[in-house]
Design brief:
The protein is α/β, with parallel strands linked by helices. It is built from ten helices and eleven strands. Strands 9-8-7-6-3-2-1-11-10 form a nine-stranded parallel beta sheet. Strands 4-5 form a two-stranded antiparallel ribbon. Strand 4 and strand 5 form a beta hairpin.
Length: about 350
């Protein structure tokens, strides 16, 4: 273990001395977000699509890894029978580099620690880190479990996992998730139920920023739904927050790239100009509705005068495709972006 810690320390320290290369309005990211590629074999298959994706205009790949990695610091938190190895991560990184694609790993933080009846590795192996311990048996009555951000052991473990993924993938940027958090004010959350949810959520963001940006020298990305006030902007309780976290937007560093996701067709997407006006760089995200994807791209570009709209993310989620070039929102969205750039 000691030898591993020393080796990992050397790797991540060297990354901190390399300035991150974030996207800009002049050099925006055309990003594809993928999930379910959680072992070397699946990554190798994805690598075969990289040349075609690059030819279409994709220059960034956000790879949601989560616990699908062959952790050495906490092998008990490996998810699945096989995981991404350090060698597999390096091989995939090399393929991304060869195709001019920025690789951004993602580790889903705070929320999404369970799905349906299945609780993820962290809260299964360390139930004391569950934000709502002993509540919601079999995960009934809740969306997803969340970890306890007030327990110092949480950061100790999670930061070690993030460091391993950074050392393996050697990215310039890292995505921390943070979407769809609902339980900070829950009566079943003993450490946070009497605290301001915005203060707690800001603590999580700032802790991650301190580690990923200040300590490791990377650019940090996060989903932005919990920073949108669902009572002021009519986006519902999923795309926006109705659980008191929205004021955290004024308590976090402005160098974080915010990724508001909007999947439905609307006449306007108010989160984009709101975040731009506050001084953040914004990277909006769409999904499977082609018309909504095009509407979001057009509306976001109408606010580019701020100079901090830095691209677009095409999310994929539950789709499992052997060929992402057949994904209509991606194909038509990239065509619109290229058409707009040509003007």
């Amino acid at each position: 273990m000691f030898a591993f810690v020393v080796a990992l320390s050397g790797l991540v320290t060297s990354r901190a001395t390399t300035a991150a290369v974030p996207p800009t309005a002049e050099h925006p990211w055309r990003a594809l977000h993928v999930i379910s590629y959680t072992n070397d074999t699946s990554l190798d298959r994805l690598a075969e699509q990289l040349p075609q994706l690059a030819s279409m205009g994709i220059n960034c790949l956000i790879l949601e890894v989560n616990y699908g990695f062959e952790f050495q610091s906490h092998p008990e938190l490996r998810q699945g029978e096989r995981q991404i190895t350090k060698a597999g991560a390096r091989r995939f990184r090399k393929k991304c580099n060869e195709n001019g694609i920025e690789l951004v790993p993602q580790f889903q933080c705070l929320g999404h620690q369970s799905w349906s009846k299945n609780t993820g590795p962290l809260l299964t192996k360390y139930p004391e880190l569950d934000l709502t311990p002993a509540a919601f048996p079999n995960n009934k009555g809740l969306y997803c479990r969340e970890w306890d951000p007030m327990n110092p052991k949480t950061n100790e473990i999670v930061f070690a996992l993030i460091d391993e993924e950074i050392a393996a993938f050697q990215p310039q940027a890292f995505h921390v998730g943070l979407d769809e958090v609902f339980l900070l004010h829950s009566e079943h959350a003993p450490t946070t139920k009497n605290l301001d949810p915005a203060v707690v959520f800001a603590k999580v963001v700032n802790d991650l920023h301190g580690h990923i940006v200040d300590k490791r020298g990377l650019t940090m990305l996060m989903w932005a739904d919990r920073l949108i006030d669902g009572f002021q902007i009519d986006l519902g309780e999923w795309e926006a927050s109705k659980v008191g976290t929205a004021p955290a937007v004024d308590k976090i560093p402005k160098d974080i790239i915010l990724c508001p996701w909007h999947y439905e067709l609307r006449t306007q997407y108010e989160s984009v100009p709101m975040f731009l006006a506050k001084g953040f760089r914004v990277l909006p995200a769409s999904w499977k509705n082609t018309e909504a994807t095009l509407a979001l791209i057009r509306d976001a570009q109408s606010h580019q005068t701020e100079g901090r709209l830095v691209g677009h993310i095409f999310t994929t989620w539950s789709q499992h495709r052997g060929n992402w070039a057949d994904f209509e929102p991606l194909v038509k969205g990239l065509a619109l972006l290229q058409e707009s750039n040509a003007k």
